[in-house]
Amino acid sequence: MKLSHVVASVIAGLVSAWAVNPAFAVNTGTDLGERLTGSSLEPSFAPESLWLAQNRSSNNLSPAQQEQLDELLRQGEERVAAKDYAEAITTYQQAAQIDPQNARIFSGIGYLHIQQGNYPDAIAAYRQAIALDTNNLAFRYGLAYSFYNNDQFDEALATYREILARNPREANAYLGIGSIQIQRQAYDDALQIYEELVQVIPGNAQAYEALGNLYIQQENYDQALIYLRRGLQASSDKSNLYVSIANLQLLQDDLESARESLEQALRADVTNANAQYQMGYLLHQEGNREAAYEYLLRAVRIDPDLVPAQALLGELLLERELYLQAVLSYRKVTEARPNDPAGFYNLGLALWGQGLHAQALSNIELARVLYERQGDAAGAERASELISFWSAQR
Fold first, then answer.
1. What is the pLDDT of residue 161?
2. In angstroms, rounded to a whole number, what is the distance separating the alpha carbons of residues 247 and 315?
3. Which residue, among 247, 180, 234, has the nearest Cα to 207 in the 3D structure?
4. Nearest 10 degrees: CA dihedral of 70, 76, 78, 82?
5. Which of 164, 193, 248, 274 is deepest in the core (most CB within 10 A)?
6. Residue 303 half-sphere exposure, CB side, CA atoms within 13 Å?
7. Does domain 47-149 have CATH number 3.40.50.2300?
8. How far apart are CA 266 and CA 240, in angstroms?
9. Which residue stretches of 184-254 are H helix?
10. Is 109 strand, coil or helix?
11. Quick one: pLDDT band at residue 42, thresholds 50, 70, 90?
């Protein structure tokens, strides 16, 4: 059993539900990058707390201004807790007008823009924070992360290097640089920075994990396994490393070893969404769809944004004629993969099963267009046939 980048599969048993003879649900598949989710291939961002509530004493403020500032910070904290980020930003901007020298207010604004995916404004806010407090590395990490997600890789690299210039033992800066080099497919440069990290901070488990996953991408599985096992020895948090080892074993068609690694990952951390997903994937490949379904359900409950799990779960939900749940899964898939025709095709199937015929046809038509753009004549023909069939049924 070889793992392909796009695994085509059809679902039997849909016909009885709505007499759609040509309706095959297409597995959107997962490429290697997606299957290595959570494996140090993307810069992480674990910012310090907003620190706003802890920073209510400010110089050069009158008692009235300090009281007004405290109230705004309190309101902002409440809005953050409610995930009302837009209002929280407005509140903290008002606080910044009262105390424009408070770097952590601007840092908090940057953090909230990140939560909204508004990276240009996050960049501006972090720059203001850094201008006020040049020694705070957390602000620079926020800036680098914002640059990365805004596809400003040169600026992100420069920011990580500024961090290393200030503190050469900042492991996360090395990992961030390596992630960007991988994004650029500059694998030799990524390898060099990870090896440098291992030399500067021997025994860094994240460095071993990153090296292992980089060698997996290069299909150098023996070297990958060496580094991942070193990571296991160095790390107290072994769950993700076991998942990476399971990835390697799946790529080598060693299903039994992969199962053992995933079981160890789940023993280490039952809330590891990637481990739950990979176990579901393995069971699905073996044909044990009932057990796979349970693991995939747990995976998306832990992490609703784990798109490969949503895609595979959507297929099983269609099998069970659970159309509303399938719609929810495939909406996640299409939001994350707006150029993937398979996601829109399957979303159309789920919508039709739910009785939303106009929306279903619209999504199948979008799938047809995307198939054509990608030169997939068979996919475009399948979508066209389904559109014709459904149109005749209305």
1. 96
2. 22
3. 234
4. 180
5. 274
6. 17
7. no
8. 9
9. 187-200, 205-217, 221-234, 239-251
10. helix
11. low
Question: Token digits for 353?
Answer: 């099963």
pLDDT tens sequence across 336-364: 999 999 999 999 999 999 999 999 999 99
Determine the Cα–Cα distance for residues 165 and 160; give it in Å rounded to an integer.
9
- Answer yes or no: is pLDDT of 156 > 90: yes
Average pLDDT (82-98) is 93
Residue 121, phi-psi category: left (phi > 0), alpha (psi -120 to 50), beta (remainder): alpha
3 state DSSP class of 256:
helix
CB count in 10 Å sphere of residue 2: 6
Contact 76, 57 (CB under 8 A): no
The whole-number average pLDDT for the span 95-112 is 93
Indicate the helix (H) or strand (E) that contains 274.
helix 273-286
Q: Which residue has the tokens 């398979």?
A: 342
Do the beta carbons of residue 275 and residue 283 sit within 8 Å?
no
Total count of residues recorded for the chain: 394
Half-sphere exposure of 53 (CA within 13 A, CB side): 10
Residue 339: both structure tokens together: 């150029």
Compute the distance between CA of residue 318 and CA of residue 100 in angstroms, rounded to an integer: 54
> Which amino acid appears at position 303 of this protein?
D
Question: Which one-letter DSSP state was computed for residue 270?
Answer: T
Q: Where are the domains of the chain?
A: 47-149
Task: Tell me the C-alpha distance between 261 and 241, whole Å.
Answer: 9
